[in-house]
Amino acid sequence: MGDTRTRARRGRVVPWVVVGLWLAALVLVGPLAGKFSDVQQNRAVDYLPDSADSTQVARIQDELPGGESTDLVIVYHRDGGLTAADRRTAAEQVAEVADTHELSGEPRGVPSEDGSTLMYPVSSTGPGQDEEARNAFVDEVRELADSGDGGDGGGLSVEVGGPGALQTDMGKVFETIDGTLLFATLGVVTVLLVLLVLIYRSPFLWLVPLSVAGAAAALAMAAGYGLHELFDVTITGQSGGIMTVLVLGAGTDYALLLVSRYREELRRHEHPYDAMRTALRGCGPAILASSGTVAAGLLCLVAADLNSSSGMGPVGMIGVLAALVAMTTLLPAVLVLLGRRVFWPLIPAYGSEPRARRSLFAAMGTSAARRPAAVLVGGAVLLGALALGTLNLGGDLKQEDSFTDRPESITAMRTLAEKYPDRSSRPVTLIAPTDRADAALETARTTDGVADAAAGRSGGGWTEISVFPTAAPESPGETRTIEALRAGLDDHGTYVGGPSAQQLDLADAESRDRSVIVPLVLAAVFVVLVLLLRSLIAPLLLLAAVVAVWGATLGIGGLVFEPLFGFAGTDPGLGLLSFVFLVALGVDYGIFLMHRMREESLAGAEPEAAALTALRTTGGVIASAGVVLAATFAVLTTLPLVGLVELGFVIAVGVLLDTFLVRTYLVTTASVLLRRWMWWPGRLSRPAPKPVREDRADREGNAEREPEPAR
């Protein structure tokens, strides 16, 4: 009786204490969470690899007199040829820009050969590294360069492009990410509401995990801000957006698993507190291992050479850990305080039995178990066929093709590429030691593929040189010119950078990072799975499954990105980031399934029965979690950057493929075929000891010695 009263008192006090601690923590971290967006950095140097030439160029430029320069190109164009009035308008507007802003040198117009276009390169060090000042400068130049009709009835177009304008347009896109994510997340909330109502037939339950996810997001943003301030971790708009998606997606997965198990235990325990304790003991290891695999996989990104990728690792890990802490402390406390009525109108009463219903996943598992070898081979062939679609993936995405809606800077870039085929409008920037600047300038001018070169600012022992290739930006010809410059200027101690060189360095770093991080992620996830499942075969099976899903999903991307979506290339980081997320997140559902399978095996179930029982009991939860996680990452496809659209599509499709094909059919049938070998070399791989058989004489002797029952 005393133990019962103690448990009842604990069940009333502990949840209130947990909720109180969370409220206090949210009050303390709220101001820090509000500063998270302020520390996001979206300059090119924030994405570049630390060791690259282009990174050194960008950093040295910041230290030159005036700091970082904002380089623009004002483009005047009229089909059929510019008029005299057009040229006067252009000269007047550019003069007004020069009078209004402090420019580096006097702007000079460069006409195209066909006379239809006139470009004015404009550069200013006034804004420096201040992003707001740079954006204001670009916006003001665009206002001043808005020509109207050019003086003779219209037809004159004016566009402001160049690296500075492109950077401003890119920054404005990232500024819209939070708002777009918010509205798209409302759609995910609707999906979650429908799922929870269908699964639990409760109109109120969905509010609980979503409210807890909001608290987890606030905690993650505060921790992300602290990470930046304490360790100078790079946080970009991309990593900040993905962290929010991870908190919502992973948190919802953990909530679905916990709530499902809690609902089961409420029928076996009188008090909600006891039911929750049992539920946490039952699914807690799976949730912990699941978050551990995701956190370990993301943390491997710290080894990346790219600043954006290495920063995304700890930022994403913080999001997952915040979701874990919230869903294993705050969510249980709130559910216990709300009691059984949170499941209204179908409240799981103590001692009741769940209503027997036909399980779709039981039917699917049974059908797969009839011919497991055929199902396994057929599924593997299907994944392999889909993976062939990777052969259709486009080359690396160019900057001009990286927006879903083309901004003004990109249209200006395309106009210049068309009208100035023999001269690039985007210079390659050299940074040479000042005492060797003349030699570097002469070498640059005599390099094949260079149209012109000119020395610029000097300071701190360095001199800036602008080199104009003859080939268009990010074309094979320009790439050969940059490589020739780097080879010819290596002895001069000169760095070769600029926007096009940055894209080359990004692609090279992505290739290097894939070769380093992919093995690290596989090893980290494998270790976590071995510790959880006490087996070597089961972890290898799960890893093989998620790698197959990754290849098949990239293949699907190759079949739709260009033919269906019209994308002109593939983001260089797609392969690595999709691998990390699909392996780390995809293993989650394998953990949920395998952990329950292991529980059933420990309880004495035969391997086939254990596999089918695990699928029947966890299939609905895994399906619901998969749909929600896929919908969460699909939010990225609403953003105006092709790279994020491709990443969101690949992860969303991969999660669905993993949920409904690989987990349901392939892992289950492989488990049926492997039987106890699945758990090798653990004790579950050995047959259970047979009961000792007594002979007839022993049974008769035992019977004689048994006392007669009392009358």
Question: Could you please describe the fold and organization of this structure?
Answer:
With 711 residues, the chain is an alpha+beta fold. 63% of the residues lie in helices and 7% in strands. It has 20 helices and eight strands. The strands form two sheets. The protein has a four-stranded antiparallel β-sheet, sandwiched between helices. Strands 6-7-5-8 form a four-stranded antiparallel β-sheet, with helices on both faces. A hairpin with a 5-residue loop joins strand 2 and strand 3. Helix 7 packs antiparallel against helix 8, helix 15 packs parallel to helix 17 and helix 17 runs parallel beside helix 19. It is elongated.
How many E-type strands?
8
Strand content: 5-15%
**How would you sum up the global shape?**
elongated
Mean pLDDT across all amino acids: 85
Proportion in helices: 55-70%
The ordered H/E elements are HHEHEEHEHHHHHHHHEHEEHEHHHHHH
Q: Mind describing the biggest β-sheet?
A: 4 strands, antiparallel
Give the spatial strand order of the biggest sheet: 2-3-1-4
Q: Report the structural category.
A: alpha+beta
Contiguous low-pLDDT stretches (5 residues minimum) are 148-153, 691-711
Alpha-carbon Rg, integer: 31 Å
Number of helices: 20
What is the structure about, briefly put?
Helix content is 63%, strand content 7%. It has 20 helices and 8 strands.
